[in-house]
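Posting this for the archive.
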Amino acid sequence: MKIGLALGGGVVYGCAHIGVIRVLEKNGIKPDIITGTSIGSLIGGAYASGLKVDEIERMATELKWQEILSMTLPTEGLVSPDKMKQFINRNFKKENIEDAPIKYAAVATNLITNTERIFDSGLFSDAIRASCSIPGIFTPAVYNDGIYVDGGLVNNVPITVCKALGADFIIGVDVTANAKSNIIKNQDIFNIVWQSFMLMINETARLKNSGEADYIIKPDIRSFSPFDLTQAERLIRKGEETAEKMVAEIAASIQEKGTLLGKVKDMLKMDDKER
């Protein structure tokens, strides 16, 4: 049975993914497939490439925006994340998705076709750069076959992609579901664009992935700023706290689903859906 992990977008909120992964791993739950959108594509890609959880935590807690972003003329976006590609190439264990020890895909939105683009081959840096491009804030990624912005527009928690890649048991992590930043306190263009974007992506995620995951972990993130990297360590702890409350049930469910009885139950569920 293949276990899938679908990590959602959410800028700095995504540090909570690290805490979730640590708890799952500590309890013997290691994914065979990882899909990610935006920050989920970055954290998931780092883990899929072979980085250990402690290495990813160190990368997140020591990260400075100037390492991955640079100011640009505000024609396509306020900042350019092109430097992110060099950051990924320096820190990841593998350059190419095909060489990763864990099957991986990142989700972006192609503005030319208005469709979801799944990056499951090629450079990690290209895939993640495309997936992380929040429209209005980051400049889009332009490749031969399209102009790409944040995958959250079409699939913020890519559970459906995880399933399409062959996952039998899927754990989704939605870091925006219980997140609420103080827009009055942080009334700047970054937070205003982000808050508007989040209203849309949460509704899209709800409709797209309804009933598709076996479990969805929703870290309790309140009063955190989505752009404050100094909160990384606290967000990681939030991810751990939420996952700890669910991991025993998840582990038991994985064990049950791997039995003959579990397979029969799944077949009955599929029949019910078809009716």
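The first helix runs from residue 16 to 26. DSSP finds eleven helices and eleven strands in the chain.
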